[in-house]
Write a structure and sequence with these properties.
Layout lengths: L1 H10 L17 H11 L6
């Protein structure tokens, strides 16, 4: 999930500041945290 999210952002020229909310459909908190960290998106989003 983290790799794909980062790849999508790069392909579309998006930065962490462009993301208002990260709403993952994932039950594993560790994966959610890793995805947000790799995307550069803070926990407040």
């Amino acid at each position: 999930m983290a790799d794909v999210s980062k790849e999508i952002m790069e392909k579309n020229g998006l930065k962490a500041d462009d993301v208002a909310w990260l709403v993952p459909h994932q039950a594993n908190k560790r994966i959610i945290d890793a995805t947000a960290r790799r995307m550069g998106v803070g926990n407040e989003k």
